[in-house]
Amino acid sequence: MNSRPRLVSWHFDDEVRSDQPGEWNWIEITIVFTDGSRRWSILYTPERLLNNLSRPDIDPPGLHMQQLIVVRSYDVNDIERVLNVFDEEDELIEASREYPE
Questions:
Q1: CA 92 – CA 101 distance, rounded (Å)
Q2: Phi/psi at 60 (nearest 5 deg)?
Q3: Distance CA 70, CA 42 (A)
Q4: From CA 27, how far away is CA 29, in angstroms rounded?
Q5: Average pLDDT of 50-70?
Q6: Is 45 left (phi over 0), alpha (psi -120 to 50) or beta?
Q7: Taking the CB of residue 92, how many other CB atoms lie within 10 A of it?
Q8: Count of other CB atoms within 10 angstroms of residue 74
Q9: Mean pLDDT, residues 68-72
Q10: Cα angle vertex 44, ends 11, 83, to 5°?
């Protein structure tokens, strides 16, 4: 039997505003697991990721983040579907980071 921690709940850590043209910031979320642990991830929509990488002053002109999840939208149903699938496929721990002690 697999006793790995499972997704219990999640919440936005940032205010989600309507997407404005040119907006490039990500949204952070906190994820709570059955063992009581809390982890965090960064959510990007494709549009915001493109806007970020298209900024002329970005240096370096790329990024890598273990905890990055790209979602179609910041709609709660879309995010829940993605997190639940990642949890079922045992990828949610890898797609998130522990909170520092």
A1: 20
A2: -75, 165
A3: 8
A4: 7
A5: 93
A6: beta
A7: 24
A8: 19
A9: 96
A10: 45
Amino acid at 24: W
Indicate left, alpha or beta for 23 from its phi (over 0: left) and psi (-120 to 50: alpha). Answer: beta
The reported pLDDT for the residue numbered 101 is 65
User: Three-state secondary structure along the chain?
Assistant: CCCCCCEEEEEECCCCCCCCCCCCCCEEEEEEECCCCEEEEEEECHHHHHHHHCCCCCCCCCCCCCCEEECCCCCHHHHHHHHHHHHHCCCCCCCCEECCC
Q: Which two tokens stand for residue 68?
A: 């990055």
pLDDT digits (tens, 9 = 90+) for 1-57: 568 899 999 999 998 876 677 889 899 999 999 999 999 999 999 999 999 999 999
Q: What residue type is assigned to position 12 of the chain?
A: F
Residue 2, pLDDT score: 65
